[in-house]
Write a structure and sequence with these properties.
The complex is a heterodimer of chains A (792) and B (188). By secondary structure, chain A is of the alpha/beta class. Chain A has 22 helices and 27 strands. In chain A, the strands form nine sheets. In chain A, strands 21-23-22-27-20-26 form a six-stranded mixed beta sheet. A five-stranded parallel beta sheet of chain A has the order 3-2-1-8-9, with helices on both faces. Chain B is elongated. The chains are: A alpha/beta (792), B alpha+beta (188). Chain A: Its cofactor is [4Fe-4S] cluster.
Chain lengths: 792, 188
């Protein structure tokens, strides 16, 4: 989230798309309702009429996988009707930048495409510069090659009629949404976009989010109270676990993970190729050196390049789908899961289960015996005698049986104290990783040579106790001034000369300036007095630097005054010579009107502007519509059917469905009573009773066509497999009219499995192994399927 | 007592809680007994936590008495949820009180159709041995003249349900061993 939950109350229009907070983030609706009480409008755009839709002022149905046409239609509507925030657009975005002469877009393909590798060379997705290297601009926005006009031309095709023919949205509903949301393109009003996995789980998922960002920049809604682009995260600490880089492609704090390449062959090469000349990332070498000081401790020195060479270099995509494909191919021998259950949650479960059967050993740490823990049992459909995997199940301590912090969707790092000793003989994940590290350190102690060396150099100083000292872990994440031995004040103090450390620079500041034994963990802060505009600066700690609203310089106009006096975040105090207000400035506190960076609120970008045009994506500088991997209709916007930069996986179990056999669009969703793959809720007697059975939700029209009655057992099939479920027939799904053709849409929860009290079929037997072109997030949300009554 | 515990945060130790309860009840044993009957939370240790489910980050108070979780409720002091919770958040007590959690570490031998209960020491020794064996037999120090120091034969997955400190430690050990297949829920 750029903003935070409580801040939603300041919104005049809340566009919820690809998310369903009423069911999946129920308490957040408190703030949606507060905004509505003040006159704000709730808009729900969803393939299904959800409980959020039932609370909305406007509901617009939209076929799954058509966010880009929908949002592009809004972008065009705002431009055509001059509803955008012109001063914001001209000054705070790159609208005025002149685009590279060779940049082109034709029939669904941007310049630089290589058909064989399905990759783009992005060198033309850049700007024209003068001899001194300055970007050429036209702040009158008249130059036909400035971003503004190139963007206008790109979205010319997304007129309301074409958009509605593709999304299936009734035209009058689309116009209602456009009028309500685009009305926030003035200084007086502000709108927010709230989204979740309905947005990201597509082959164009990243560009879906980018489209939201562009719309918000056009309307001047980023950086303001009640505004922003807000991902509603699905798990208590999925924000924190991402920040801590439990992902192959990043290091803690979002530095790119080094790869086996010339670009990254040494620390010097890495720093040179990954460090921009301007913007906050120009500090990257300081974050890298400080990270390695935390990782390798005293072993890392400037002379040995902080042991950068010892850090693993990846040679391929290692993301979830790729991981299971590699496991299926026999490349992966050992597997450890920490509270994750891919046999329910992964896409194309038949393949992922077959992959696990090839493992030599598997360690599963969880609260309950999950489907993944028992992938080898008869109940799972396997023949145990044919599976030679050694399996270790480690009973994990529950969330209040240990201590530590979790970061919510608003980046609030909140401490969870330990209430009771772990149940039975369970242990925390921290205990296990600590003791595994110590066992391995002992095994390698007497070994020398190049294989042992990198591991022996790893610093592991979390105390001598049986349990690791969480306080020491916190200090290491925050980092130290290694000269004084105190924890570092915050990341602005980090250096690239080996005199500072920080395990995760973006968190640096949560444990400031503490001498050994002195406790200053700000995630434990519990002062609930409102410090202004409901930012609660003394409750918990929000990274970075306790900022609650990112890019908040953009909440103020060109003179440094809030765009709207009822909606103040920060402002320039001329007498004090600094930015002041209700939040920690996301800007140089002393950057004043005479500073060249005064109009550059987006400090993480090299030129300080919001990017309407970017070269940061693998699949285009603007979002462009492509149909899902499996779609019943041709792409109406170009002859290119699928995202041309999405990787296609072939081989066993990777069959693609055809609309002839599978004419119905299927999607998955969540329920209030269950959580993710279900171990913590389907084993809970109260929740299991509330939502006991797997079902598939069908429209009345589809049910009538198929002769299916309420509560019938039905079979849902896709090119990957079949599952059985109860039919639930509702008015919440309706047939769509797409380009003149009737298309059915159905949906089902993905929480169920064969373990627990509440049991049911695993929805992900149906979903494919294909992912987004940027992130490889699987396309769970739009696949082709069919449905029939079960025999007997 | 509740007013005190909610307005001023303190992880109330049993002794503090009991003392406050007695002070408030004026040392009258009959009155104390009557009050305890009214509320099963009268003499509990109260610890604040954050809901383990979605990412709204609601505060929850866990009430412990006699080494058992006797009650859980929304934290009225928490600025986000102000005491309210959803169906899942209201049910966190059962994460402890359920009898469905495995009692011991369990091991399944190759080809076997059942678990065997084991001690942690045995499990740790065996897992460390497997990790080392796999790592050492697949480790690549250099490739194409570039130091790569990795193994692709071990994969780690998960962490969104864990704490920041645990996630940090896991990524540290896994990268320390040279893993590149490090993934979790955020990807899917």
């Amino acid at each position: 989230m750029t903003n935070h939950w409580i801040d939603i109350q300041y919104s005049d229009a809340m566009l919820v798309i690809g998310g369903n907070p009423a069911e999946n983030h129920p308490v957040s609706m408190k703030y949606v309702q507060k905004a509505r009480d003040r006159g704000g409008k709730l808009i729900s755009v969803d393939p299904r009429f959800t409980r959020t839709s039932s609370k909305a002022d406007i509901y617009a149905p939209m076929r799954s996988g058509t966010d880009i046409p929908f949002i592009s239609g809004l972008i065009k509507y705002a431009i055509d009707n001059e509803l955008y925030h012109k001063e914001y657009v001209v000054n705070y975005t790159n609208a005025s930048f002149i685009v590279h002469d060779d940049y082109k877009f034709k029939d669904g393909i941007f310049s630089g495409y290589n058909e064989d590798t399905r990759n783009y060379d992005r060198s033309t997705w850049t700007f024209k510069r003068d001899e001194d290297g300055n970007i050429l601009k036209d702040e009158t926005l008249k130059d036909p090659r400035c971003v503004w006009n190139v963007m206008k031309e790109h979205y010319e095709r997304y007129d309301v009629d074409t958009v509605c023919a593709v999304t299936g949205t009734p035209k009058e509903d689309f116009i209602k949404v456009a009028d309500a949301f685009c009305s926030t393109g003035t200084p007086e009003k502000v709108g927010t976009i709230m989204y979740a996995m309905g947005t990201t789980q597509h082959t164009v998922g990243s560009q879906n989010v980018r489209a939201y960002g562009m719309l918000q920049l056009l309307l001047g809604n980023v950086g303001r109270a009640g505004g922003g682009v807000n991902a509603m995260r699905g798990e208590a600490n999925v924000q924190g676990s991402t920040d801590m880089a439990l992902l192959f492609h990043i290091m803690p704090g979002y530095n790119p993970a080094p790869t086996q390449s010339e670009r990254h062959k040494s620390l010097a090469a890495y720093n040179e190729n990954e460090t921009p000349a301007s913007g906050y990332w120009s500090n990257r070498p300081k974050f890298m050196a400080s990270f390695f000081k935390a990782h390798f401790g005293d072993n890392a020195t400037p002379e040995n390049d902080f042991l950068y060479d010892y850090f693993p270099k990846s040679r391929r995509n290692n993301s979830h789908i790729a991981l299971f494909e590699a496991m299926y191919d026999g490349d992966i021998k050992g597997f450890i899961t920490w509270g994750q259950n891919p046999i329910v949650g992964g896409p194309n479960v038949r393949k992922e289960k077959a992959a696990m059967e090839k493992l030599d050993w598997f360690v599963c740490m969880d609260l309950f015996e999950t489907e993944t823990a028992t992938f080898w049992t008869k109940e799972s459909g396997a023949d145990p005698s044919k599976i030679n995997t050694e399996v270790f199940f480690l009973p994990a301590a529950g969330p209040y049986e240990k201590e530590g912090s979790v970061s919510n969707s608003g980046r609030w790092m909140q401490y969870r104290w330990k209430a009771i000793e772990p149940k039975n003989d369970s242990r925390s994940d921290a205990w296990f990783v600590h003791n595994l590290a110590r066992r391995l350190k002992a095994l390698y102690a007497s070994e020398n040579g190049p294989i042992a060396a990198p591991f022996k150099a790893l610093d592991w100083s979390f105390g001598d106790g049986d349990y690791p000292d969480v306080d020491l872990v916190c200090r290491e994440i925050n980092g130290y001034d290694l000269t004084t031995g105190k924890t570092i004040l915050n990341f602005t103090q980090l250096k690239d000369d080996g005199t500072t450390s920080s395990g995760n620079w973006i968190y640096s500041g949560f444990y400031p300036d503490a001498a050994p034994g002195e406790e200053k963990n700000r995630s434990k802060n519990r002062d609930n007095v409102d410090t202004g505009m409901n930012n609660y600066l003394n409750w918990s700690y929000a990274w970075p630097l306790n900022r609650r609203i990112l890019y908040n310089r953009a909440s103020a106009d060109l003179e440094g005054k809030p765009w709207n006096s009822n909606n103040e975040v920060i402002w320039w105090d001329n007498a004090a010579g600094s930015w002041v207000g209700h939040d920690v400035p996301d800007f140089g506190a002393a950057t004043g009107p005479t500073d060249p960076g005064w109009k550059n609120p987006f400090i993480m970008r090299p030129d300080g502007k919001g990017e309407l045009f970017t070269n940061g994506m693998t699949d285009g500088p603007f979002p462009e519509h492509y149909e899902p991997y499996e779609s019943p209709v041709p792409n109406a916007f170009s002859s290119v059917q699928l995202n041309p930069a999405a990787r296609i996986w072939t081989g066993d179990y990777n069959d693609k469905g055809d609309a002839k056999d599978f004419p119905i669009i299927g999607t998955t969703y969540r329920l209030s009573e269950h959580w993710q793959t279900g171990p913590m809720t389907r084993n809970n007697k109260w929740l299991a009773e509330l939502m006991p059975y797997m079902f598939v939700e069908l429209s009345e029209e589809l049910a009538a066509e198929k002769g299916i009655k309420e509560k019938d057992k039905v079979i849902v099939s896709s090119a990957r497999g079949e599952i059985e479920a109860y039919a639930m027939i509702t008015k919440r799904f309706r047939p769509y009219e797409i380009q003149g053709q009737k298309v059915h849409h159905l949906g089902m929860p993905w929480h169920y499995g064969y373990q627990g009290i509440a049991k049911g079929s695993i929805a992900n037997y149906l979903t494919p192994h294909i992912g987004d072109a940027n992130t490889m997030i699987p396309e769970y949300k739009a696949f082709l399927c069919n449905v029939r009554r079960a025999e007997g | 007592m509740f007013e005190v515990s909610r307005r001023q945060f303190l992880k109330l130790s049993g002794a503090t809680a009991a003392t406050l309860a007695i002070v408030e009840l004026g040392f009258d044993p009959h009155k104390a007994k009557a009050a305890a009957k009214e509320l099963k939370t009268a003499r509990t240790d109260v610890t604040p936590t954050i809901c383990p489910y979605c990412s709204v980050g609601c505060g929850i108070l866990i009430h412990v008495k006699d080494n058992d979780v006797v009650y859980s409720e929304g934290d009225p002091d928490h600025p986000i949820n102000q005491g309210s919770l959803c169906s899942k958040g209201s049910s966190v007590r059962d994460l402890y009180t359920t009898d469905r959690r495995p009692k011991k570490p369990m091991y399944r031998a190759p080809g076997s159709d059942r678990w065997e209960e084991k001690e942690w020491d045995w499990m740790l020794d065996r897992i460390a041995e497997k990790v080392k064996e796999t790592r050492d037999s697949t480790f690549v120090v250099n490739e194409d003249g570039i130091p790569v120091n990795r193994t692709e034969a071990i994969a780690s997955m998960g962490g969104a349900a864990l704490e920041n400190e645990e996630c940090y430690m896991i990524q540290k050990l896994m990268r320390g061993l040279g893993l590149t297949f490090i993934e979790h829920q955020a990807r899917i």
